[in-house]
């Protein structure tokens, strides 16, 4: 890994830190690393903002000081000690943006560390354009952040889904059933793809590749005859050829049309929809399991603890060097950073021909493609 030099040409006096978007394992590891790195290297005061951007959208702002004691013993803890929000949005209106900026000034912050996913980085970029000194840290179980090959939290989610698939397999075998397991991931299929491969799923269905129902049914039927059971791992954003994605609800109205590229929709339930469609085509019982928030909970894996620690420390180095408007990244196995302008409004989905897709296809995993 290429590490930045340890010298500190600039020394922020007071740094804010917040966790935005859906929570994920490893957030506390980042909070700890940022805090310890800054306290040790320049003695900056670290201020934890509560509940993501929600803590900056109220009067007075909600924040507390983080010292050595506050971050001691949190490396292993899931969730975030600061709380998070995937609703609060400083870009909702000009007043919301102004209040956020005023609260940053009121807290006396020289810089802000935003730990979040694509939505949070879009907000961070907009605030950076308004003059805030911001460094982003890539968080999301979905692993869909542009310019970064691994967000922390993804490894833990994949481990959780893999274990769930293994447990589903034994009961599927006992009852000669076809079991459909739905993962999170929004419009990116990374979780379903990696966990499906890790747990030897027979079929892996991704948002990036619309599935052909008759081809999937034929694959499952053949597998049933051969091995008594079949397990399908499906990403929540997947859809049938010519069909639509399965939505639970719109979560809240988007008040700023300019922000609208990524609609604030809640996905979920595609496994039940597929269950209904597949059942008449098969001679075995079909059942669906939606894994849900279990994928976001719990203690981070050792990989995520290390990655989150490296990211947190790297964010502190960027602050010390006065590199603002950047998000920490991992690219080609190297730590680095990318302009928030490049990350904002982008998503990293599974590209066609990705080596994992090729390998899955070559070893006989059904990706739902027509025969
Ligand atoms: N394209 C966008 N432009 C502006 N704001 C957005 C956009 N997408 C999401 N947001 C806002 O960003 C906030 C966080 O978004 P989101 O819930 O997607 O979390 P995130 O930080 O992307 O993390 P994750 O997706 O992993 O949960 C929400 O308040 C949402 O309104
Ligand atoms: O906690 P909520 O609001 O239901 O959000 C769920 C969404 O957040 C994520 O867990 C992380 O982006 C997605 O995989 C999922 O679609
Ligand atoms: Mg997001």
UniProtKB/TrEMBL annotation:
This is ATP-dependent 6-phosphofructokinase. Signal peptide: none annotated. The keyword ATP-binding applies. The gene is pfkA. SUPFAM superfamilies: Phosphofructokinase. It is found in: Cytoplasm. It catalyses: beta-D-fructose 6-phosphate + ATP = beta-D-fructose 1,6-bisphosphate + ADP + H(+). Mg(2+) binds at residue 118. GO terms for biological process: canonical glycolysis; fructose 1,6-bisphosphate metabolic process; fructose 6-phosphate metabolic process. Pathway: Carbohydrate degradation; glycolysis; D-glyceraldehyde 3-phosphate and glycerone phosphate from D-glucose: step 3/4. Gene3D superfamilies: 3.40.50.450, Phosphofructokinase domain. The lineage of its organism: Bacteria, Pseudomonadati, Pseudomonadota, Betaproteobacteria, Burkholderiales. Substrate binds at residues 140-142, 177, 184-186, 236, 287, 293-296. It comes from Serpentinimonas raichei. InterPro entries: ATP_PFK, ATP_PFK_prok-type, Phosphofructokinase_CS, Phosphofructokinase_dom, Phosphofructokinase_III, PKF_sf. The record marks 119 as: Important for substrate specificity. Keywords: ATP-binding, Cytoplasm, Glycolysis, Kinase, Magnesium, Metal-binding, Nucleotide-binding, Transferase. GO terms for molecular function: 6-phosphofructokinase activity; AMP binding; ATP binding; diphosphate-fructose-6-phosphate 1-phosphotransferase activity; fructose-6-phosphate binding; identical protein binding; metal ion binding; monosaccharide binding. Its cofactor is Mg(2+). ATP binds at residues 22, 87-88, 117-120. Its EC number is 2.7.1.11. The keyword Membrane does not apply. It comes from the Bacteria. Catalyzes the phosphorylation of D-fructose 6-phosphate to fructose 1,6-bisphosphate by ATP, the first committing step of glycolysis. It is an enzyme of class 2 (transferase). The active site is at 142 (proton acceptor). PROSITE patterns: PHOSPHOFRUCTOKINASE (PS00433). GO terms for cellular component: 6-phosphofructokinase complex. Residues 14-319 form the Phosphofructokinase domain.
């Amino acid at each position: 890994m290429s590490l930045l030099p340890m010298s500190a040409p600039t020394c922020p006096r007071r740094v804010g830190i917040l966790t935005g978007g859906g929570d994920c394992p490893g957030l506390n590891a980042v909070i700890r690393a940022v805090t310890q790195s800054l306290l040790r290297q320049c003695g900056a005061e670290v201020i934890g903002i509560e509940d993501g951007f929600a803590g900056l959208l109220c009067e007075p702002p909600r924040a507390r000081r983080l010292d050595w004691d506050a971050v001691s013993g949190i490396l292993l803890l899931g969730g975030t000690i600061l709380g998070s929000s995937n609703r609060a949005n400083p870009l909702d209106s000009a007043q919301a943006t102004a209040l956020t900026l005023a609260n940053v000034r009121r807290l006396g912050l020289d810089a802000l560390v935003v730990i979040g996913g694509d939505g949070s980085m879009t907000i961070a970029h907009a605030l950076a354009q308004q003059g805030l000194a911001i460094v982003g840290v890539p968080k999301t179980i979905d692993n869909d952040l542009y310019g970064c090959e691994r967000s922390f939290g993804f490894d833990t989610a994949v481990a959780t889904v893999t274990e769930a698939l293994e447990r589903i397999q034994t009961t599927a075998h006992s009852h000669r059933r076809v079991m459909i397991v739905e993962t999170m991931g929004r419009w990116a299929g990374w979780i379903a793809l990696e966990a499906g491969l890790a747990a030897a799923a027979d079929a892996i269905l991704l948002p990036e590749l619309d599935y052909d129902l008759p081809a999937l049914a034929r694959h499952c039927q053949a597998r049933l005859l051969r091995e008594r059971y079949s397990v399908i791992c499906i990403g929540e954003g997947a859809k049938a050829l010519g069909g639509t994605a399965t939505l639970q609800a719109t979560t809240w109205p988007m008040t700023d049309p300019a922000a609208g590229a990524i609609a604030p929709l809640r996905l979920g339930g595609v496994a039940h929809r597929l269950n209904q469609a597949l059942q008449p085509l098969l001679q075995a019982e079909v059942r669906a399991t939606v894994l849900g928030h279990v994928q976001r909970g719990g203690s981070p894996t050792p990989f995520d603890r290390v990655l989150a620690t490296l990211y947190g420390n790297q964010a502190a180095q960027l602050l010390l060097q006065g590199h603002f408007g950047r998000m920490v990244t991992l690219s080609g196995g190297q730590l680095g950073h990318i302009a928030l302008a490049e990350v904002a409004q982008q998503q990293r989905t599974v590209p066609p021909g990705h080596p994992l897709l090729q390998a899955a296809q070559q070893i006989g995993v059904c990706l739902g493609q027509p025969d």
